[in-house]
Amino acid sequence: MKLSIPFNGQPDLLEKIDKRKVIEVYGKLTQDFVGGGRSSWTTPNVSKRKIASCVKEAHKFGLEFNYLLNASCLGNKEWTRSGQNRLRSLLDWLVQIGVDTVTVTLPYLAEVIKKCYPFKITTSSLGHINTVRRAKMWEELGVDEIAIDQMEIVRNFPLITQIRENIKCKTKMIANEDCFLDCHTLFYHSNLSAHSSQ
Fold first, then answer.
1. Do residues 147 and 122 make contact, with C-beta atoms less than 8 angstroms apart?
2. pLDDT of the chain, 198 residues: tens digit per residue
3. Could you count the other beta carbons within 10 Å of the beta carbon of residue 29?
4. Are 105 and 71 contacting, i.e. CB atoms less than 8 angstroms apart?
5. Contact between residue 112 and residue 90 where contact means Cβ atoms under 8 Å apart
6. CA-to-CA distance for 77 and 57, rounded, in angstroms?
């Protein structure tokens, strides 16, 4: 088992971790066009300079960097010319600084990235992949790794095993989910976080 750990904005993070157990570091700007799974006001202040530096440091230690594009909603901006230009600008910058992987929640983003960019693609746990069929649909889009939805199938080991056995791509799970089990605001909270980090 290998771990993926969050970048907290602190430059000395990578010096302190056990690199034998960690395969990648993940993170994102405090705000960007896509947004993510955490509201900006709950995350550390992370600038473009800090992300670029972390990517470079991660590579120096033999680790990969996974940039989060895991918002659950873009407010239909992805269908506008200006929205597509802003998305391309962000993705071009990620290529420029050497990001290895991107994590997405929206199938649209997976399709655009797979077609036009060199990144490995991981699905976000916010994509609620909790059936074999859903996992296979994402795999058909060409993703390299699927984050299984532990919120809805937490500890359902037979189902997790069934998903794992029916797809060829890698799988991952969040080890310490902080949401309430069966929370009734799960989808609303995801969208709230998406829009408050854009």
1. yes
2. 789 988 887 878 888 888 889 999 999 998 899 988 777 777 778 899 999 999 999 999 999 999 999 998 999 999 999 999 999 999 999 999 999 999 999 999 999 999 999 999 999 988 999 999 999 999 999 999 999 987 778 778 999 999 999 999 999 988 776 676 677 667 766 767 776 778
3. 22
4. yes
5. no
6. 33
